[in-house]
Amino acid sequence: MVARETQREAEDYYERYAVTQADHGAVDNHMAQKKEFANSHDKSAFDLYRKRFAGGAGTYPLVGTPEKIVADLVKISDQGYAGAALSFVNYTYELPFFCDRVLPLMRQAGLRVS
Questions:
Q1: Fewer CB within 10 Å: N-end or C-end of the chain?
Q2: What SS3 class is residue 64?
């Protein structure tokens, strides 16, 4: 998850660590193995997965403002999911921001009870 004050900030950070600074050798190796065993996917599926793998081990990216993050989590909840496991690139910076800016909005949206 990448939550920032502006959408541009969040997208720029995600792009930096998931594309620009990614471990391209490791990602290339992983993608070659995926392609070998999943011939039914088209190229665009592999391109999307490549960025998701580099940016979070293939997970669904939550990237945006606190309000967008919560809106995305509400959509996930509305699909029937009872919870989500979230991870951060830099816990020292991102966890306090999440606690201060995202958790209160999650409470307001009914996603958190306490």
A1: C
A2: strand
According to DSSP, residue 18 is labeled I
Instruction: For residues 8 and 64, give the distance between their C-alpha atoms in angstroms, rounded to a whole number.
Output: 8
Query: What is the value of pTM for the model shown?
Result: 0.80
CA angle, corner 22, sides to 33 and 46, nearest 5?
40
Contact 50, 58 (CB under 8 A): no
The CB-based long-range contact list for 97-104 (8 Å cut-off, 24+ gap) reads 97/3, 97/4, 98/1, 98/3, 101/3, 101/66, 102/3, 102/66, 102/69, 102/70
Residue located via tokens 């699909």 = 79
**What string of pLDDT tens digits covers the 114 residues of the chain?**
999 999 999 999 999 988 888 788 888 787 777 777 776 677 777 777 877 777 777 778 899 999 999 999 999 999 999 989 999 999 999 999 999 999 999 999 999 877
75 by Cβ neighbours in 10 Å (0-12 / 13-18 / 19+) ranks as exposed
d(CA 57, CA 28) in angstroms, rounded, equals 13
